[in-house]
Amino acid sequence: MAGRRNPVTGPAETYLHLVPEEAGAARLLSRFALKHPGVRILTPHYPDEPWRGSVDANSVPDDSREMILTAHQPSELLGKLEELFAGAPEDDSG
pTM surpassing 0.70? Predict the structure, then answer.
């Protein structure tokens, strides 16, 4: 599709070709980061590196820490991020 950008490129894209059941989780990680501006997904540069999620300070309600979460698979990282933000109220400002 023209104009459509793949959120995962490089070695991480190669990983997803080898482990196709994780492709959906990688797309959900991208959406999660869009929904939560203080979250960045850091894809691995090599197949044996972990997936990382960077969470800016004060992005999680009642928590002022900056955090780096790591996981071996995108689905595992997504679970950790969802658990971290589970108590966060939804943004209903507009």
Answer: yes
